Amino acid sequence: MSSYSYGDHYVHIKIRVPKKLTRRQRSLLLSYAEEETDVPGTVNGVEPSTGGSSSSGERRHTQTEEEEGGGFLSKLKNMFS
């Protein structure tokens, strides 16, 4: 494919949604959903909270993401806007 082409470029993204989650995976996803505040929409089973019940390791990971400029979804959103 030539890098000098003009016109529309299509990007195909394939996301594989898991059928079953372990308790730990579900807990991690719900914790992530609670922390992600700059994304519109809702997640079933997650209510907005100020405290949260994440462990210190998850907090450190979240702080690192904030220092880098946001989470994965924020970076993906910024890439396409």
TrEMBL record:
The keyword rRNA-binding does not apply. One of its GO terms (molecular function) is protein kinase binding. Keywords: Chaperone. One of its GO terms (cellular component) is mitochondrion. It comes from the Eukaryota. Residues 34-81 are annotated as: Disordered. This is Uncharacterized protein.
